[in-house]
Amino acid sequence: MIAQDRPAASIGMNTIKQRRLKLPVKCYQQDFVGEYIPFYFCPRSVMLYVIYCANHPELAYFGGQEPIIHLEAKLFETIEWANGVNRRWAFALSNAGAYYTEFRNRLDQLDEVDWEAIAARDFHDPQAKEGKQAEFLVYEFFPWHLVRRIGVQSLSIQRQVLRALARITHRPVVEILPDWYF
């Protein structure tokens, strides 16, 4: 997205985005984290909390969390698709933008993800915070038809999303999910 001079509004931290362009996905040494489409394993991410607090010195976005939507896909369906089209995928055991992160690329390694931290609503504990930031990564492209649900915070945003989806064939369910937000 950065190379294509997009998106119009960036909601992450530019220093982290730049670092991700140079960090290797250690289970695919030729690839860099920034070449992958990232997904958290849960809503209410640490990054969304940073946006909610709006007090981080590197934060460039101050539009609040209401306009932010969550795209949900099924993990095993995504892996099956990726394997079927020879697309690399991996997951990071913590923030994929950190130098120390460990990466995995086998289903039998999913038990190494800290699922308790991912499910946690309180992640002030440093270990829980690290585990909550685990990411699933798909190399270069993620197909729209695998998006199964879109979570939004408000009726206003739900209406906007439904209008945007009105003329396309694949229309995921769009639900107001306030528990996915802070």
Describe the structure.
This protein has one domain (14-146). The chain contains six helices and nine strands. The chain has helices at residues 14-20, 46-53, 75-84, 115-119, 126-132, 155-165, and strands at 24-25, 28-32, 36-40, 70-73, 89-92, 103-104, 135-139, 147-152, 173-176. The radius of gyration is 16 Å and the shape is globular. The model has no long low-confidence stretch (mean pLDDT 92).
What topology does this entry show?
Layout: H1 14-20, E1 24-25, E2 28-32, E3 36-40, H2 46-53, E4 70-73, H3 75-84, E5 89-92, E6 103-104, H4 115-119, H5 126-132, E7 135-139, E8 147-152, H6 155-165, E9 173-176
Parallel strand pairs: 8-9
Antiparallel strand pairs: 1-2, 3-7, 4-8, 5-6, 5-7
Overall spatial form: globular
Largest sheet: 4 strands, antiparallel
| Main sheet strand line-up | 3-7-5-6
- Computed CA radius of gyration, to the nearest angstrom: 16 Å
Unreliable sequence segments: none
